């Protein structure tokens, strides 16, 4: 299914799912959420974003887009030099669909993996440092490029947020896209930054090169 056609199909099931018995119970946001993903790649990132935006238990305050590996960019049919921007345009289109009640800002990250500062990194820092009673969770479904850039920009935010990341090879030396595409970012976030991390691996955590920190 093409990604643009998928945008419509992704919203309806999520809306229906939230229209069941729980809809009669008052739901209040208990956390703030930043959603970071490489939205120009597999459409699963857009599905996750749709569900996040429709959840009454979390307030989505920011969406940031990360780049794709050049080979994956070719498979996705997007310009390899503009994948973060292309993904953010898809995310923005999804947010503008009927039924979406939350419209957080969408900010583009760096178009590459050199580790430099970006608009997305600055926005993550600004949200982490903002005075708000709700705790902040950053969810990342792609490489940790934007998260690492934010932590390098202001290491103090490691104490003001928690990270939930889908990525990491289960076996030492194993290849996993979200880890291996920007290994330097993963090493900095997981080994140096001190930010609390919850991780979801595609296989058993036995022998993981980067053990989870909770």
List its traits.
38% helix, six-stranded parallel β-sheet, Inosine-uridine Nucleoside N-ribohydrolase, Chain A, 6 strands, 214 residues, alpha/beta, single chain
Write the layout of secondary structure elements.
Elements: H1 3-17, E1 31-37, H2 44-54, E2 58-65, H3 70-76, H4 83-95, E3 106-108, H5 119-129, E4 136-140, H6 145-153, E5 162-166, H7 177-180, H8 183-193, E6 197-200
Parallel strand pairs: 1-2, 1-4, 2-3, 4-5, 5-6
Helix pairs in contact: 1-2, 2-4, 5-6, 6-8
What does this structure look like?
It contains 8 helices and 6 strands. With 214 residues, the protein is of the alpha/beta class. The protein has one domain: Ribonucleoside hydrolase-like (Inosine-uridine Nucleoside N-ribohydrolase, Chain A, Alpha-Beta Complex). The chain has a 6-stranded parallel beta sheet with strand order 3-2-1-4-5-6, with helices on both faces. 42% of the residues are buried. The model is unreliable at 204-214 (pLDDT under 50).
Q: Approximately how much helix is present in the residues? A: 25-40%
Strand order of the largest sheet: 3-2-1-4-5-6
Number of DSSP helical runs: 8
Task: Name the shape in a single word.
Answer: globular
Number of domain units: 1
Could you tell me the strand content as a percent range?
A: 5-15%
Look up the CATH topology.
Inosine-uridine Nucleoside N-ribohydrolase, Chain A
Give average pLDDT, whole number: 84
